[in-house]
Specification:
single chain, 996 residues, alpha/beta, Anaerobic Ribonucleotide-triphosphate Reductase Large Chain, 10-stranded mixed beta sheet, 3-stranded antiparallel beta sheet, 31 helices, 40% helix, RNR_NrdJ/NrdZ, nucleotide binding, Vitamin B12-dependent ribonucleotide reductase, EC 1.17.4.1, cobalamin
């Protein structure tokens, strides 16, 4: 056996690892086991000694109120670790109470705690041929972790080597049956998993529907009703003592009689959120009032099968089946149901789809049971009551300095070591329930994956949405999974195959052949991916040959997880399989502070594309200013696509994301955690088409997110930053012009140009309008007067009786706004500051254009925006007239069609019960303003108002785009989070909204 394996290993191009036979007891015989060669380390030199260490202070604050969330001084990290990576590891992964001697203070302690546990378990369970091999394994693992080559998932860092249970898995799948005992046990098991810092998913389709009878004769509650209890439980549990909320997935089969109710659950709750938000309640993610809304702690997915999808194609009826008898109790039109799914996803991003027949066609253990569900982010798909521990590789560590090649040999050796470590962890791991522990030990599911794919493609000059980019991604994925299963087969020769292999030997081998065949179908376009794919084919050949002799140690080997927190730990530019978020990033600096930088991958990509250094510098400077590459100096338009990102000026088309997933999926044991982002203008039909194409392309799971489909954060004034930058540039140019034209004299002359705002008064007789309004029952009048050459110049608000406190405050506020307008403060600035401001009175108005207002000021400035701001400006703040909103629903566009009268835009508003007439001259606001401000002769000059500074890459991107993006604020530090797969992650403190 050993000779046969060694021959196969030689054919695969590997070096130095021998795989001996087992001793008949599932363990390696004495002196037999893995021979581990050094890859990264040097004999006689400990990995720590090859690193320069430095002491840092980690102080984490909530920038919104200045409070200190965390403080630990004198922590030790390698000098090449970023501030962000060090902060996240210190706050999340250092163990021990702060201020005690037990608190970890160095990355060395954290890595030793984990790696030495793995080495000890490997020795105890017979993985290594000798103590020397175990020591080399320890050193190699240490080097890779310290140098950010890979990372284990978060539960490993939370738990391994501590007094806590040694939970190493991040992903769990549970099961629930149609009994009350099982349902209540489901609540309990989920709570235990959330407590350990992980997420769980399950399929509720075994629970009988609300259209079926109980044995007592009454109607069953149905699975949707039981979802409420589980959702409430999840909402109260903080995962793992950390800051993220519990993460969960709920799946229902498409033939369940309650499927239509399930599809609508979150869409209807989103309607409720909007009403409550407009009534003044805090409905942001993590807000104080969001807990009153149901189903918000879970991702929902519909499990569709080929029968349903074919019925959809053919326009046929589809039967919904009773859970107890399997008989069809209702017929629905497949097209109608599929449209309902798409519409709900359009409204609130849920439900996603899971393609049942595809999933189970790639299942290695069908003789044990079907795959019915997934973890919360949909990358782990396996048996009920099972778990998976994850690890992710940093792909940029294998790219050459000139980005011309990928070191596939180093990649193979790294995968061997990581898979070995991951399998060892199952030997000592603890599990939240005995049934999960038993299934995991019997099938030993692993989930190796990677991060930084988007950065790799850009750095090597490949567009994410291109045939070349997809070929590289497919080749790397094939090489990773082929190597992982080949090492799994070798481990089976040492410590035995997984316990469930015997009854699943044939289907497991069949799936291995499917993976190998898929590798043969990949079309390469250049030497870069051709070399990787050749190595992948060699690995799959060795995998099949060794596996035929030994079987396999692991039922599953790979997934593609979001890699949120661990992605930041490895200083990755992109997470999981995602493209880059944006070209400009927010970077924290040693010693405090931050700066805006252009991605490091951009200059590497430009150099790879052949641009000389001076052009690279000019293009990078342009990107730093504009946030995109369009019209960048010297950059050829055919290269624009290389720099396309997930968001921004040139964002990747939705199908570009789907096609990338389709290229990778045949080489992943599980699935891919990824959300396909669509613009707000996307239609229900587009989402329906994407879900259909996902099935046709052989994906296992697919989720979509339409921008602004969920209630988001208040918009911030990002355009002000652009205006401020333009003003500064103009001032600098003027100063330089003066200096260039000055005549040299022996006397030093200093020219000081004093710039101060000047006021432009309105004439004594001015044009304006009076609007009567009512907000939440509180009535008032607004007088708005304009300059003769257009533009708002004065606002006067009248509420309550003269002499009252409210009337006085409104007069003072009117004066302040009027003076500001006359000194050049743009109306847009006031709109950005006062819309969405919440206080009583709030509620319904009489204005058809602004049906709900969160306060008097919210209404006033929405009305002013509609009356005085151009469409493209107010559209950035989500302010539309009633007619515009109706047109968008009917035609998909807020703007009139060609030939349509502009008057149509205001027809509806003019028919509303709002009084408008020219006011008398000399209003009280003007009289007061005249007394408060001096006369000025100079013309009015716009005064730019600086915006709040960015505190994350997401906020920086919003500033560049000019409008806010959908992303929650971190509940821990207040920073705006960024997408990571189907979750969100905070780059300030590493908190996540899911299980990554």
């Amino acid at each position: 056996m050993t000779e046969a394996i060694s021959a196969a290993a030689r054919r695969s191009g590997r070096k130095g690892t021998t795989v001996p036979a087992q001793n008949g007891k599932g363990e390696a015989a004495e002196g037999r086991g893995l021979r581990v060669e050094r890859v990264y380390t040097t004999p006689g030199v400990h990995p720590y000694d090859a690193v320069t260490w430095e002491s840092r202070d980690v102080v984490m604050t909530n920038w919104r109120d200045g409070s200190v969330n965390f403080e630990q001084r004198g922590v030790e990290f390698p000098d090449f670790w970023s501030v962000n990576a060090a902060n996240i590891v210190t706050t999340k992964y250092f163990r021990g109470a702060l201020g005690t001697a037990q608190r970890e203070t160095s990355l060395r302690q954290v890595v030793d705690r984990v790696v030495q546990t793995y080495r000890k378990a490997g020795q105890e369970h017979g993985y290594f041929a000798s103590d020397d091999d175990a020591e080399i394994f320890e050193h190699e693992l240490t080097h890779m972790l310290v140098h950010q080559v890979f990372s284990f998932n978060s539960p490993v860092w939370f738990n391994v080597g501590t007094a806590s249970p040694q939970q190493v898995s991040a992903c769990f799948i549970l099961a629930v049956d149609d009994t009350m005992d099982s349902i209540l046990n489901w609540y309990r098991e989920e709570g235990l998993i959330f407590k350990g810092g992980s997420g769980a998913g399950l399929n509720l389709s075994r629970i009988r529907s609300s259209k079926e009878l109980l044995s007592s004769g009454g109607n069953a509650s149905g699975p949707v009703s039981f979802m409420r209890g589980a959702d409430a439980s999840a909402g109260t549990i903080k995962s793992g003592g950390a800051t993220r909320r519990a993460a969960k997935m709920v799946v229902l089969d498409v033939d369940h009689p309650d499927i239509q109710e399930f599809v609508q659950t979150k869409a209807r709750e989103e309607d409720k959120i909007r009403v409550l938000r407009d009534a003044g309640f805090d409905m942001d993610l993590g807000g104080s009032d969001i807990t009153s809304v149901q189903y918000q702690n879970a991702n929902n997915s519909v499990r569709v099968n080929d029968e349903f999808m074919r019925a959809y194609e053919q326009g046929a009826a589809f039967g919904l089946r009773a859970r107890t008898t399997g008989e069809i109790i209702e017929q629905v039109e497949a097209k109608d149901l599929f449209r309902q799914i798409a519409q709900a996803a359009w409204e609130c991003a849920d439900p996603g789809l899971q393609y049942d027949d595809v999933i189970n066609d790639w299942h290695t253990n069908p003789n044990t049971g079907r795959i019915t569900a997934s973890n919360p982010c949909s990358e782990y798909l396996s048996l009920d009551n099972s778990s998976c521990n994850l690890a992710s590789l940093n792909l940029m560590k294998f790219v050459s300095d000139d980005a011309s090649s990928f070191d596939h040999e180093l990649f193979v050796k790294t995968v061997e070591l990581v898979i070995t470590a991951m399998d060892i962890s199952i030997c000592f791991a603890d599990f939240p329930t005995e049934s999960i522990g038993q299934t995991t030990r019997d099938f030993r599911q692993l989930g190796i994956g990677y991060a930084n794919l988007g950065a790799l493609l850009m750095a090597t000059g490949h567009a994410y949405d291109s045939e070349g980019g997809r070929a590289i991604a497919a080749a790397i994925s094939a090489l990773m999974t082929g190597t992982a299963y080949r090492r799994s087969a070798e481990l089976a020769g040492i410590v035995g195959p997984y316990s469930g292999f015997a009854v699943n030997a044939e289907p497991h081998a069949r799936v291995m052949r499917k993976h190998a065949d898929a590798a043969e179908q990949v079309v390469t376009l250049e030497e870069f991916d051709r070399a990787i794919l050749d190595a992948a084919k060699s690995e799959w050949s060795a995998c099949l040959e060794i596996g035929a002799e030994n079987g396999w140690r692991n039922a599953q080997a790979s997934v593609l997880a979001p890699t949120g927190t661990i992605g930041f730990m490895m200083d990755c530019d992109t997470t999981g399989v995602e493209p880059d978020l944006a070209l400009v990033k927010f970077k924290k600096l040693v010693g405090g502070g931050s700066m805006q930088i252009v991605n490091n991958t951009v200059p590497r990509a430009l150099s790879r594309l052949g641009y000389p250094q001076e052009q690279v510098e000019a293009i990078v400077a342009y990107i730093a200013e504009h946030g995109h590459v369009v019209d960048a100096p010297a950059l050829r338009p055919e290269h624009y696509e290389v720099f396309d990102c997930a968001m921004g000026e040139r964002s990747i088309a939705p199908m570009g994301h789907v096609l990338m997933m389709a290229a990778i999926q045949p080489f992943i044991s599980g699935s891919i955690s990824k959300t396909v982002n669509l613009p707000e203008s996307a239609t229900i039909e587009e989402i329906e088409g994407i879900y259909y194409e996902g099935w046709k392309l052989g994906l296992k799971a697919l989720a979509v997110y339409r921008d602004n489909c969920k209630v988001g954060q208040p918009l911030q004034d990002a355009k002000g930053a652009k205006k401020e930058a333009a003003a500064k540039a103009a001032a600098t140019a003027a100063t330089q012009a003066v200096a260039a034209t000055a005549t040299p004299t022996p006397i030093e002359v200093r020219t000081v140009i004093e710039r101060r705002p000047t006021r432009k008064r309105l004439p004594r007789a001015r044009t304006g309008s009076t609007t009567s309004f009512s907000v939440g029952g509180a009535k008032g009048y607004m007088i708005a007067n304009s300059y003769p050459d257009d533009g708002l110049g004065e606002v006067f608000l009248k509420m309550a009786k003269q002499g009252s406190t409210l009337a006085g405050m409104m007069d003072a506020f009117s004066i302040a706004i009027s003076v500001g307008l006359q000194y050049g403060v743009p109306l847009e600035t006031y709109v950005s500051k006062f819309t969405n401001m919440r206080f009583e009175p709030a509620g319904l108005t009489e204005d058809p254009d602004v049906r709900m207002a969160q306060s008097i000021l919210d209404y006033i400035f929405r009305r002013l925006a509609l009356d005085y701001l151009p469409f493209d400006v107010r559209a950035d703040y989500g302010i539309y007239s009633a007619t515009e909103r109706q047109r968008q629903l009917e035609t998909g566009s807020y703007l009139p069609a060609e030939g349509e009268s502009d008057a149509d835009l205001t027809e509806f508003a003019q028919s509303a019960p709002i009084e408008r007439h020219a006011p008398k001259s000399g209003t009280p606001a003007e009289a007061e303003a005249d007394a408060e401000a001096p006369e000025a002769a100079a013309p009015r000059t716009a005064v730019p108002v600086p915006t709040a500074s960015a505190h994350s890459s997401m906020e920086l991107l919003e500033a560049k785009m000019g409008h806010a993006a959908d992303a929650p604020l971190c509940a821990n530090c207040g920073t705006k989070m960024r997408p990571a797969g189907s979750c969100y992650v905070c780059e300030g403190c590493g908190s996540t909204s899911g299980c990554s």
